[in-house]
Amino acid sequence: MLDIASKSTAALLPTDIFFQTAYWAQVKARLGLKPLAFDLITAGPWGDVLVLLRRWAGRAVAVVPQGPEYAPPAEDYGVFLERFSLALAKSLGPEVAFIRYDLPWASPYADDIRESGLRAFPEARVREMRMNMGTEHWNLRKSFEDLTVASSLVVDIGPGEDAILDAMKPKTRYNIGLARRKGVVVELGGPESLADFHTLYRQTASRNGFTPCSLRHFSAMFHGLLARPGHTELLFLLARHDADILAGAIVGIAEGAANFLYGASGNIKRNLMASSLMHWEAMLHAKRRGCRSYEMGAVSPSDDPTHPFHGLYRFKTGFGGRIEYRSGSWDYPLDHEAYRDFRTAEKLARLDVGA
């Protein structure tokens, strides 16, 4: 038995999943999406969920950003998602072409990657067979891309500062010290510095081949924070050397968890290792705010030089921590013809329906 009941997004329960907060609902509303919130009505403590509706080709797409938070046993993932999708479809109405989940749940392949030498997640066809096992309609589809990240580096910042540093690789500790010795300074910034950050961010996007978010997106994040104080927090850090801004970061804090959301680095003075010092300072700021973990985001699942995120793996694993392997993004089509059209457009244009 699984049912849902609509409620105000302001009534979303506190959570350490940043993208399932009432704050994130406000940010997305400012960017033109329609946020909805639902309680999960069951016999168990299954909580609630934030759903975002966005327009596409005269239809709507429902996105569940890093949710639902509640995770059933791995063998029941598909059955739970099918039941939840059918319940959600009744509330969303016929204009919704499909539901996309960016699941925070542990990947059923995590142990194989950690212990059995598996270097990457299996192909989509194999994962779909496993996810749909036990479902009635076999309708769950692996998304073309993951909305956020399926493999993320998480650093425990609960211990003392010396213990955190000792858990890092020697080269990372050296780079942090080098940046300090060379005069790099990391400061907290405010919304007035967003344009400078966005300039660096566009350089980063050009260098690494991804489509950057707009300045409007970052402005909405700070306006949303002002509209709902006390429940979430943003750390906005800028690393400077003399008159130059070398790197920047936006870190979200929710219920004792810090998440590195957006980062940027310039094309000059890269030998000063500003990004290493910036992450260390972000950890210290988050720790002082009571955070127990600092999530650095995307890495390759393993030390695989052929993976596009291998450079991120090498940099981020230098800070110690552990890789959390998650299930990634999954779709539940409601209108199969519209869903096929969307998949075609997504593959051709890498259309972003991000959380």
* Cα-atom radius of gyration: 20 Å
Give the oligomeric state: single chain
Number of β-strand runs:
13
Report mean pLDDT, rounded to a whole number.
Answer: 92
Topology:
Blueprint (H helix, E strand, L loop, with lengths): L2 E5 L14 H9 L3 E8 L6 E9 L2 E6 L12 H16 L3 E11 L3 H6 L8 H9 L8 E2 L8 E6 L4 H6 L3 H12 L3 E4 L5 H15 L6 H13 L5 E9 L2 E11 L2 E9 L8 H15 L4 E6 L11 H7 L5 E12 L2 H14 L6
Parallel strand pairs: 4-5, 11-12
Antiparallel strand pairs: 1-2, 2-3, 3-4, 5-13, 6-13, 7-12, 7-13, 8-9, 9-10, 10-11
Helix pairs in contact: 1-8, 6-9
Description of the structure:
The protein is of the alpha+beta class and 355 residues long. It has eleven helices and 13 strands. Strands 1, 2, 3, 4, 5, 6, 7, 8, 9, 10, 11, 12 and 13 form a 13-stranded mixed β-sheet that branches. Helix 1 crosses helix 8 (215-227) and helix 6 crosses helix 9. The radius of gyration is 20 Å and the shape is globular. The relative contact order is 0.18. The model is unreliable at 351-355 (pLDDT under 50).
List keywords for this structure.
single chain, 355 residues, alpha+beta, 13-stranded mixed beta sheet, 11 helices, 34% helix, globular, disordered C terminus
Short description:
This protein is α+β, with helices and mostly antiparallel strands. The protein contains 11 helices and 13 strands. Helix 1 (22-30) crosses helix 8 (215-227) and helix 6 packs across helix 9.
